[in-house]
Design goal:
- The structure holds two protein chains of two kinds.
- By secondary structure, chain A is an alpha+beta fold.
- Chain A has one domain.
- Chain A is built from five helices and six strands.
- In chain A, the strands form two sheets. A four-stranded antiparallel beta sheet of chain A has the order 2-3-4-6, with helices on one face. A two-stranded antiparallel sheet of chain A has the order 1-5.
- In chain A, a hairpin with a 3-residue loop joins strand 2 and strand 3.
- Chain B folds into two domains: 151 residues, 3-Layer(aba) Sandwich (Phosphoenolpyruvate Carboxykinase, domain 1); 188 residues, Rossmann fold (3-Layer(aba) Sandwich).
- In chain B, helix 1 crosses helix 4.
- The chains are: A alpha+beta, B alpha+beta.
């Protein structure tokens, strides 16, 4: 995936709550929710703040290609999970070199990861017209067998 | 309306049902004047049996003759009224988000339950709700354990009050919220506590309010649910042998009146959020938990198991977890010990 420019939270389908050291992010469209801690939380905050994602990856590269690739994979994962999307406004964001996440990446050299939870997703993605037990009903999903 | 727009058709159908109840001859219906946690509403039933179920299983307070109703609910079955059967869903696939967006744009709330073919619509501005079943008794399988849950969610909802998917346990008017997904041990913990003499405002859903100076929980239903093994662990075999047959989840629905002591109290001041975890062993243990982890245990199951209002539910849950101390409780394998631990924990909280 070619990550360029600034991204934003994919509202209104995505809701995030800031608990200081951890963001809890929920995708209302598919019922999946995510925990972002440590540098992942800092990165999320910077993405929300309009820092260019390719700029963050480039600024983190002095800490090593593996780390830069890890940051890129993390950001790609956020996009693929439907949590962020390219920012609609054309205004330039702040310089990536000033992003808190860049300083943290250069200092800690820890690849950011997020934890995904999908125990609610089945409830949301079940199609009650076709997928539920006739005698029990939504939201009980029909046995795959 | 596009011909392939089932959500728009559902909205139009909802409007037609709400218009139909406005001119309905109420003398044919059973009317109840109800009070759920100080929300006064009138409920009109075409099936007296359904009215009995609601009176029996809802947590209701007394209501004076003079107090006006904020909401009127029409709980109807097509057969009893001689109406056409409830419409089936209008499309090939059901899209919850699309339906909720269309309803919200029309100023309505609602849901469709496929298998029992039940429609529920609520007009918040007019304070009117309607539910249409096929015939008497064809309510959803889970209705007896929590009657009118969606309507209670819509009627009570505000920025500071919300239905929560949480159990409650308390003593002397103070208590804790027990949160977690289904199967996490909420109901078993509540039943163990009740068997040990503690109070509750519910084991699965309750109404939670965040006032400026306090968080409170109030009961909506008078039913506790538990599988036979859990009932035996808490109360021994004597109670389990006297209960009704198992429900659709393989659980007993235990009405408050079947318990040795009615454990339901009108309100509990909530002093902590507790995430139970099956630990085994001889003693239970509490340890502080990050607010974000408690939030992850509470918000998704609360938000996604109700028909709509996910965003508000998540914001509400986050605020709750930020303002209250949060703990994980590792549960012992002894019901009496769990009750005693919870009582000590609640009494020890400031």
């Amino acid at each position: 995936m070619d990550l360029k420019g600034s991204y934003e939270v994919a509202a209104p389908e995505v809701v995030d709550e800031d608990f200081g050291g951890e963001f809890v992010v929920l995708n209302l469209r598919d019922g999946r929710y995510f925990s972002l801690r440590g540098v992942a939380a800092t990165l999320w905050r910077d993405v929300r703040g309009g820092y260019a994602v390719d700029g963050i990856v480039a600024a983190a590269r002095p800490a090593g290609d593996d780390l830069a690739r890890g940051v890129e994979a993390f950001l790609t994962g956020l996009v693929e999970a439907g949590l962020i999307r390219p920012r609609t406004s054309a205004a330039d964001g702040p310089a990536a070199t000033e992003a808190a996440s860049v300083a943290e990446l250069l200092r800690e050299r820890v690849v950011p990861v997020f934890e995904a939870f999908d125990d609610m997703a089945e409830l949301i993605l079940s199609d009650p017209i076709h997928d539920v037990e006739e005698d029990i009903g939504w939201p009980v999903r029909r046995d795959a067998s | 309306m596009r011909p392939d727009d089932p959500a728009a058709e559902a909205v139009a159908y909802g409007r037609s049902l709400l218009a139909a109840v406005a001119v309905l001859d109420r003398t044919r219906l059973t009317c109840l004047r109800l009070n759920s946690a100080d929300l006064h509403f009138d409920a009109f039933f075409s099936d007296p049996g359904y009215a009995e179920l609601c009176v029996r299983n809802l947590a209701l307070r007394s209501r004076s003759e003079a107090s006006p109703a904020r909401v009127r609910l029409y709980l109807l079955d097509a057969e009893g009224l001689g109406w056409p059967r409830p419409a089936p869903w209008f499309g090939e696939r059901f899209d919850r988000a699309q339906l909720n967006a269309a309803l919200a744009a029309a100023g309505l709330r609602g849901t469709y339950l496929h298998d029992p073919r039940v429609w529920q619509f609520f007009d918040p501005a007019q304070g009117v709700g309607v539910q249409l079943l096929r015939r008497p008794g064809t309510w959803p399988a889970w209705e007896s354990g929590g009657p009118l849950r969606a309507f209670l969610h819509w009627m009570h909802a505000s920025d500071s009050v919300s239905l929560c998917h949480a159990g409650t346990v308390g003593v002397d008017g103070r208590g804790v919220l027990l949160v977690g997904a289904g199967g996490s041990g909420k109901s078993g913990t509540v039943l163990a506590a009740v068997a040990g003499g503690l109070d509750t405002a519910g084991d699965d859903y309750c109404l939670v309010g965040q006032a400026e100076n306090a968080v409170w929980a109030r009961p909506l239903f008078r039913i506790l649910k538990q599988d036979p093994d859990g009932v035996r662990r808490a109360f021994g075999g004597s109670l389990a042998d006297r209960l009704d047959p198992l429900n659709w989840q393989g659980k007993h629905e235990i009405h408050a009146s079947r318990l040795p002591r009615d454990p339901f109290v009108d309100s509990l001041r909530i002093v902590a959020v507790v995430v139970p975890r099956i630990g085994g062993g001889r003693t239970s243990a509490f340890r502080p938990l990050e607010a974000a982890r408690a939030m992850r245990a509470l918000a998704p199951s609360s938000a996604f198991q109700l028909p709509d209002g996910e965003r508000q539910g998540i914001v509400f849950a986050a605020a709750l977890c930020r303002r209250l101390p949060c703990y994980e409780m590792s549960l012992s394998d002894n019901a009496a010990e769990i009750a005693a631990s919870l009582e000590g924990f609640v009494r020890g909280m400031p």
